[in-house]
Amino acid sequence: MKKTIVNSLLVVCVLGLVGACFMSIYADIAFDDQKTEREQAVIARLLQIRDAEEEYRKAHGGEFCGTIDSLVDFVKTGRAVVNISEDLWTDELSMAFETKADAVRAGAFRSDTTWQSAAEKLGISNPDSLKFVPVGREGAVFQIRKHEAFNLKSNEFDKVCEVRASLDDYLDGLPAKKIKNLKAELKKRGKNRADLFLDNADHTEGNWYGLRIGDLEDPQNKMSGNWE
Questions:
Q1: Has this prediction a pTM greater than 0.85?
Q2: Given 91, 122, 153, which residue is the final one in a domain?
């Protein structure tokens, strides 16, 4: 009788351990799936912002837009450059002329510049949404900073820009312990992180985690994403 009771208790314990292991694995998988889904939504919005910054630069002599509100306003009310070619730039033309400018001067090729709505060219139907991190903490916005960084290759100062979405913003609502563990792993790997923006003397440097395009300290970054 006692042996039967002991065996039954052992079976219950084993089943409990198996269930706990399963739930732990399932929770990890669920967190990873939700994290990936949210990251993809943020990346899609960052790519829209990158395209908008490129159009802004074309319209403003190579200057980056320095605030997300100003960028949204440009998309809503600004104009983007559109190049229209009378003839296609064919292989024959590229063989006959060294540059398109040479072909234009010879009358063999025509390239006109016109303008259209920035929102229309970018395919953004709701420019106001560009400002907000699309998932996670309600009302969280993207951060934009710009300045000039010295380029060691060219020995000149280049205009640089950086746009960020904080991990704490877009993962808000997911288990806090798993977010903490994720940060520890990112810190260990030195991946997907950056120093804090230093807006004034009251701020000190520290670890920041999230997704971003551009790099304030690297003029050769060319607005690439830290996930790329």
A1: no
A2: 122
